Amino acid sequence: MAKQDNRYDIVIVGAGPVGILLSLCLSRWGYRVKHIDNRPVPTATGRADGIQPRSIEILRNLGLKRALMAYEPAKVYDVAFWDPLPGGKGITRTGNWPSCPRFIDTRYPFTALVHQGKIEKMFLDEIEKAGTVVDRPWTIVDFENNGTDAEYPVEVSLKCLDTNVIENVRAKYLFSGEGARSFVREKLGVKISYKDQISFVWGVMDGVVQTNFPDIKTKCTIHSDSGSIMVIPREDNMVRLYVQIASSTDPDWNPRKTATVEEVQAAAKKILRPYVIQWDRVEWYSVYPIGQGIAEKYTLDHRVFMGGDACHTHSPKAGQGMNTAFHDALNFAWKMHAVESGFANRSLLESYEPERKQIAEDLLAFDNKYAALFSKRPPSAEEVGNAKSNDANAEENEFVQTFKSSCEFTSGYGVAYDPNVINWSPSHPAQSHLFGIDGVKLVPGRAFTPTTVTRLSDANMIHLEQEVPANGSFRVFVFAGTPQKSKKALEDFASYIEKEKSFLSVYRRPDIANVSYFERHNPHSKLFTLNFIFASEKNGVDMQSLPQIVKDYHHHIYADDIPDVRVPHAKYSAHEKLGFDPEQGGVVVVRPDSHVACIVRLVEGSGTVDALNAYFNAFSSKPLGQGPGSHL
Amino acid sequence: MAKQDNRYDIVIVGAGPVGILLSLCLSRWGYRVKHIDNRPVPTATGRADGIQPRSIEILRNLGLKRALMAYEPAKVYDVAFWDPLPGGKGITRTGNWPSCPRFIDTRYPFTALVHQGKIEKMFLDEIEKAGTVVDRPWTIVDFENNGTDAEYPVEVSLKCLDTNVIENVRAKYLFSGEGARSFVREKLGVKISYKDQISFVWGVMDGVVQTNFPDIKTKCTIHSDSGSIMVIPREDNMVRLYVQIASSTDPDWNPRKTATVEEVQAAAKKILRPYVIQWDRVEWYSVYPIGQGIAEKYTLDHRVFMGGDACHTHSPKAGQGMNTAFHDALNFAWKMHAVESGFANRSLLESYEPERKQIAEDLLAFDNKYAALFSKRPPSAEEVGNAKSNDANAEENEFVQTFKSSCEFTSGYGVAYDPNVINWSPSHPAQSHLFGIDGVKLVPGRAFTPTTVTRLSDANMIHLEQEVPANGSFRVFVFAGTPQKSKKALEDFASYIEKEKSFLSVYRRPDIANVSYFERHNPHSKLFTLNFIFASEKNGVDMQSLPQIVKDYHHHIYADDIPDVRVPHAKYSAHEKLGFDPEQGGVVVVRPDSHVACIVRLVEGSGTVDALNAYFNAFSSKPLGQGPGSHL
């Protein structure tokens, strides 16, 4: 037992954005986590600050949105562009556009801004509630995947920076969330490949200002004859200014070039003329060089992993660092859980690097394209109008297309994972003519679209995409169409899902006999939550006549009877917005990180469940979908 | 100075719903509050629990909504009716309807349920932050409005129930929130008049149950051959059952009749047959007699006041007790503030009793009517459809009408104060042809309707009705129509409101020279916040060209450019939903408790400001609107 004490499921190094989200998930899901950080205390202020619309969804799914909003973050709905007036007369607003235009279907069409210290604090409070404490100031001094212990193959040496005491632990996994200077990455010999080889020195200053500049509470990019600046409104009457101090494209490029607070303020005063600005106080100031680079590998052995800034660094302007880190962490967390819970083959972990590295590459490409887009000219009013529009017929020139994909990307809804064993495509091992439904707008690899429906048990109006919390379960959404039309198909679905070799039966809870009466999400299996949405008014569904296995998900049976402004003429808004025929319905499997996995037709007979079994069988550690039927 | 120490602006007796809301407002607004409660500790659990849609708005306006929602209250969206099946075969659902149907325009179409202890706690935390601590266990033993001190005319004797120490204090006001057994009311000799003279004994039980009764998470009234019961879902998997144990209409009426937990459970089991129910645990159980009564007076001298259960008691079924108490407290708080801040004549306090007593009378009348409505028959499907509808042309029989007014009442939006010096009507002292605008749907005395607009300074999408917090200020909403059309009218408005005798100038802040740059709500006067809403897209308003006095409210300048599902064809949803011509606009004065005060046309010349001056002059302690003009 004493020996057992230094064995952990995972060692997480670093308590920045990627480390805290990973630590929270795994601690909550029952893993033994060793989490260290080399700073004596958490971030006090400053640093990363922008939380994208899609990240707000992720935080809500983790139960953290209320804590975030309690900080009263500044909310950026709009970006304004300021350019020089001719004749040295200062600057003028030449355009503006929504930071998350209406064509992006999100509940949170804004970026929320609070400093990283507050974000870390809300995670750390919850991590502690889940039983993990971040040890500080501790650092990693050595590690080796030596396989001495087959179950805990990774040996890690940690050192307390206060006492110099060394602690050796064994772990199933080691995760580096160390930031740009990663000991783990260096020891592994993983190189950073620099895109375009452009580097920058940035000055960033958070402070409280008084000014007559009218857009001080709006995100702005300002080009003037005296230089450029980016303005980001912050919580507590603060504003952040980004000033580019040097670029490797400068003739006198010096990566050690710096600037004092006073120099940056003087520069800002010049740039903002004819408006005046003065500082009440400066809360945080930093100058840092940034190279836009991506680690060539995120893991070498699928035991030692990296994420966040350890894998990708880029300009802070796009506000993507923390958000990309969150996605890295969530992506790794559920896959490790799927493997360690005995559900998925170990090879599932091989999808972490390609999925996340591709997004980092998109990010860097975007970063450059975004800059180029604006250096040419501001958008015209007509182009802004077209770009904001929801109307698929609006004319789209290259400018508008780039703008749209930029907005999708900065909002976080542009994260689109390629086809692989999790994201179904025609080349997936699971083959059935029931995969894919014409007209359905959901795309495997992309986030599940928000819809609002009525829960039958308590008539509550709910946000369907948030109904299953981030607990590592796959979400199976059965859009059950009209109750009369789909009665037989639903009965067959219930019947075949009860067969011995179905995904639900094979992975049923070992404690199924003792599951609480109040269990809402996982009555049968810890790995799946079933949801049933009927194209019907609330009173049109007879709960009592549903198959028992459906009734067991009493918290997840819904009527699709809430109007949606995005499909104003729809009778069954959720079905129709997603593109389902409201009579036929269909089944959507959503990954534990809320990305769509596959879409299957809902038909009479065994076909639908056969297709789902085949889908999960592609990465299941136990065979699914064969053998004689028997009951759950 | 030692003598000064026992002088308070107000002594509040009782820390139940009415006392805590009053204490919070007055403590925050800078008053010296002595607040006592005779219980040694706050409510632990049980008691009142239902917070209406309109009360949720009030809590949000006090900054308490996030704390409320953090308790994860049960939300009641629907009420189901169960009735006996013929032949003793148990019960069946005969109907259901929304508890807050769509014709009621609210952001929170549900009742939130958490026990009174949690609600008290969130108030007590904030009261303490505002500098007041509730002394416990203390009681009131004597009081007298003896005028010995003209400024603090009320002498109050308080006694500590732990030590028997007596403390004598002087106060400007004494407020009894003591509940049904009020020492203050008895000493004043105020009688309770009992409506209909019907009394009841109720048993109420909060507990965690397991049942196959399908509507256990819905509010239900159940009539069976074995008796009647009301089911209210609660937070934390609890359910509340109300059982009527005795009624004064019973032949063997005995107000001391009681029942044990086991008896109530046995009764519930019989009533719910054929469904089964069993208790995991009982959290709270109480039996109490209720007489439906109203105090004849709420004050005798406008120094000693009463509110909450001290003034009105009624059946708990309608879920109105706590909500009515909140309204009592808010109504008194802002009026006392208006008087004590030097703004309003003391006679303004005379409106507290008639406004609040009328609502208590409406409540008792409603309580009886509501009961009668259901004892006859459940509503038909068609009636429910008509009643839910937003369509003004739907046929309305008496049943539907009663239902609609019932829903309005239970949601809190039925509170409609009669015309008086605050609620303008043609008999108001202020006379101008500019009062009242044809087509405008706002009614003086009723709550201001929710609308969503875009704030110009930061492009945030905001809820207009919540933009000014409950800080005791009147809110002046200038619906400024189209900027081009209303330019001159708005310039004149700005010009005349700057004149020496305008309401804004006469009551300007004495510290106006030192007002913070970041002041959002009260740059000129602590008593008024001006808001300007333009019928325009965000980019159609040139902030720079607005009059300086308008620009001073930079946090309160809005564009009416957000679609609203309730007026799907409107271009300027807020203007059009409220009934304003989007070209002309108009001005709405809203009381500090969010009830509409008056509506005035926005015209060129001095007329609009003249009308507003005349309106406020009706209760202003200083003359408004006369004399030569000069600048603020």
From TrEMBL, chains A, B:
Flavoprotein among keywords: yes
Which UniProt keywords are present, listed alphabetically?
A: FAD, Flavoprotein, Membrane, Monooxygenase, Oxidoreductase, Transmembrane, Transmembrane helix
Q: What is this protein called?
A: FAD monooxygenase, putative
Any one Pfam family here would be Phe_hydrox_dim
Domain FAD-binding intervals: 8-366
Q: Which InterPro entries match?
A: FAD-bd (IPR002938), FAD/NAD-bd_sf (IPR036188), Phe_hydrox_C_dim_dom (IPR012941), PHOX_C_sf (IPR038220), RIFMO-like (IPR050641), Thioredoxin-like_sf (IPR036249)
Name the CDD domains for this protein: PHOX_C
Q: Which residues form a coiled coil?
A: none
Keyword Transmembrane in the entry? The reply is yes
Q: Which family does it belong to?
A: Belongs to the PheA/TfdB FAD monooxygenase family.
Transmembrane segment boundaries: 12-31
The protein's superkingdom reads Eukaryota
Organism for this UniProt entry: Talaromyces stipitatus (strain ATCC 10500 / CBS 375.48 / QM 6759 / NRRL 1006)
Domain Phenol hydroxylase-like C-terminal dimerisation stretches: 415-622
| Molecular function, one GO term | oxidoreductase activity, acting on paired donors, with incorporation or reduction of molecular oxygen, NAD(P)H as one donor, and incorporation of one atom of oxygen
